[in-house]
C-alpha cells in the first residue's frame, strides 16, 4: 500500500451553462448508438482496442478489485471455433430453450441462431468476470462482481461508440465454451461477448424507439427544469 492512503483529487469542473451543454451533446451522441449485426471486415487499429479496454478498466469496482479480464481475439481460427460453438448453443436456444413470448419479442430484430458476425468483425472482445482472485495457492474474495463487471461493460460499449466503432452485446447461453476455447482459469467465467469493428456498407438496424424519459426517470423532490 502507498505511504499516503489518500491523495488529493482534482476534478475537471465547468460552468453551469457549459455543463448543461456538454451533458446535452453527450446525450445526443450516445442516442446514436445502436447494436449492430452487420460488420465490415475492414481492419481496426489495435491501438483503438487497447484504448477502449483501458477506458473500460477504469470503471469502479467493489473494493477496487477490478474483477475482470478482457480477452481480445483476432485470430481467424479462434473466431471460427467461437462461432461454431456459439451457433450450437444458439440453435438449441432458438429451438427449445426460448419461450414463445421470448421468440415473439425478438421478431422486430429478424435475428436467428446463425451468427456470421463472429467471424466477420475484425475483433471479438470477451469480457470475463473473476469470481475470486487466485494468488498462488491463496484464493481471495472479490466483491460485487456482477455489478462491477456490468459497469465496466457499459464503459466499454460507450468507448466503442466514441471511437466510431460498432458492437453487439452477444450472450450465447451457456457460455462455458468460451472459457474452454480461450483456456481461461477456473476463477473466470464469460460475462459478455462483443464483436467490434466498423459497420458494413449496407448495415441496417431495427426501426425501434427508446422509452421516453417519463417512463425511465422518476423524480422525488423539487427541480428547476428551466436550468
Describe this structure in words.
The model has no long low-confidence stretch (mean pLDDT 95). It contains 8 helices and 6 strands, in the order ααβαααβββαβαβα. With 227 residues, it is α+β, with helices and mostly antiparallel strands. Helix 2 (46-56) packs antiparallel against helix 6 (145-162). 24% of the residues are buried. The longest helix is centred in the middle third of the chain and has 22 residues, at 76-97. The chain has one domain (36-198): 3-Layer(aba) Sandwich (NADH Oxidase). A hairpin with a 2-residue loop joins strand 3 and strand 4 (138-141).
TL;DR of this structure?
The protein is an alpha+beta fold and 227 residues long. It has a single domain (36-198), classed as NADH Oxidase (3-Layer(aba) Sandwich), CATH 3.40.109. It is built from 8 helices and 6 strands; from the N terminus they run H-H-E-H-H-H-E-E-E-H-E-H-E-H.
Uncertain runs: none
Q: How would you sum up the global shape?
A: globular
Instruction: Assign the CATH topology.
Output: NADH Oxidase
CATH architecture field:
3-Layer(aba) Sandwich
Which structural class fits the helix and strand makeup?
A: alpha+beta
State the share of residues found in helices, binned by percent: 25-40%
Order of helices and strands: HHEHHHEEEHEHEH
Alpha carbon gap, first and last residue: 44 Å
Task: From the structure above, extract its key features.
227 residues, alpha+beta, NADH Oxidase, four-stranded antiparallel sheet, two-stranded antiparallel sheet, 6 strands, 15% strand
Amino acid at each position: 500500500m502507498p505511504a499516503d492512503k489518500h491523495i488529493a483529487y482534482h476534478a475537471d469542473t465547468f460552468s453551469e451553462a457549459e455543463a448543461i451543454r456538454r451533458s446535452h451533446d453527450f446525450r445526443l451522441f450516445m442516442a446514436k448508438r445502436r447494436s449492430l449485426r452487420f460488420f465490415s471486415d475492414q481492419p481496426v487499429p489495435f491501438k483503438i482496442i487497447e484504448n477502449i479496454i483501458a477506458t473500460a478498466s477504469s470503471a469502479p469496482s467493489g473494493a477496487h478489485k477490478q474483477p475482470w479480464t478482457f480477452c481480445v481475439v483476432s485470430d481467424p481460427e479462434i473466431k471460427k471455433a467461437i462461432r461454431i460453438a456459439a451457433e450450437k448453443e444458439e440453435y438449441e436456444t432458438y429451438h427449445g430453450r426460448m419461450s414463445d413470448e421470448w421468440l415473439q419479442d425478438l421478431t422486430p430484430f429478424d435475428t436467428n441462431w446463425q451468427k456470421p458476425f463472429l467471424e466477420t468483425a475484425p475483433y471479438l472482445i470477451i469480457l470475463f468476470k473473476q469470481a475470486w482472485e487466485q494468488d498462488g495457492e491463496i484464493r481471495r474474495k472479490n466483491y460485487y462482481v456482477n455489478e462491477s463487471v456490468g459497469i465496466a461493460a457499459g464503459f466499454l460499449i460507450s468507448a466503442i461508440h466514441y471511437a466510431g466503432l460498432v458492437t453487439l452485446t452477444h450472450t450465447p447461453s451457456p457460455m462455458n465454451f468460451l472459457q474452454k476455447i480461450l483456456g481461461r482459469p477456473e476463477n473466470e467465467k464469460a460475462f459478455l461477448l462483443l464483436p467490434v469493428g466498423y459497420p458494413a456498407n449496407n448495415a441496417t438496424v431495427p426501426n425501434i424507439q427508446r422509452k421516453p424519459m417519463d417512463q425511465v426517470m422518476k423524480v422525488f423532490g423539487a427541480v428547476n427544469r428551466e436550468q
